[in-house]
Design a protein that fits this description.
By secondary structure, the protein is α+β, with helices and mostly antiparallel strands. It contains 2 helices and 9 strands. The radius of gyration is 60 Å and the shape is rod-shaped.
Length: 216
């Protein structure tokens, strides 16, 4: 009959066995005491301690766009901008309708007994007649001929070419046309009364200023 021989374990084996049990026991303790959400205090973990995937997981999906807000109040007026470049000239306008005058012309005395006729419609001609009545000398009358029209049966007008050029002198169609020939329109330059301003024909006057003449 064989006898089992037993021996006492060495100190090294005892220490190894104790270390093994401690290691296994510590792992079990840690597994049983893992940190969960209930152990974390609110606002206790800073963002820089979280991983990128954790931060991304905390973001929710973008919500729907809200309604447009009310219009704000008008802002102050801005300063004036620089002047723009000049535009291109426009196209010429259409020609105006013909006037109602049967004949017209611009009569320009030369101050030395002559007269020029321009802007002439109707073939108007003009000449100067010098009149002396004793108290006044060298008075010029303008005798105008308009083919087809007579001063006895036509209406004519005369006025200075520039506004105010003859104040207080005005060209007047003289119905007597006694200084001009038969069939000629006579235009006198008359100075109005200096006291009343009324056209009382106080005196003839040589203004020698251009005037327009027309037969209506």
């Amino acid at each position: 009959m064989n006898r089992m021989i037993t021996s006492r374990p060495s100190p090294a084996i005892v220490i190894s066995v104790i270390a093994l049990f401690v290691a296994l026991g510590g792992t079990s303790f840690a597994a049983a005491n893992l940190i969960n959400g209930s152990n974390i205090k609110p606002n206790s973990i800073p963002k820089n301690r979280l991983t990128t995937s954790a931060i991304a997981g905390l973001k929710g999906a973008m919500g729907a766009q809200g309604p447009q807000g009310p219009q704000g109040s008008q802002g102050p007026q801005g300063s004036q901008g620089p002047q723009g470049v000049a535009g291109t000239p426009g196209a010429p306008g259409a020609a105006g309708a013909a006037g109602d005058a049967k004949a017209y012309a611009l009569i320009t005395p030369d101050g030395s007994g002559g007269v020029a006729v321009s802007r002439n419609k109707g073939g108007i001609t003009a000449r100067v007649v010098v009149f002396n009545n004793g108290s006044q000398t060298g008075i010029a009358f303008y005798c105008l001929t308009v083919p087809g029209y007579s001063p006895d049966s036509s209406v004519a007008i005369a006025q200075y070419w520039l506004v105010g050029a003859g104040t207080p002198v005005e060209p007047v169609i003289d119905g007597n046309h006694n200084q001009c020939g038969a069939g000629e329109f006579q235009v006198d330059e008359i100075r109005t009364d200096s006291n009343t301003g009324a056209p009382s024909f106080a005196a003839w006057f040589n203004w020698n200023h251009p005037f327009t003449f027309a037969v209506l």
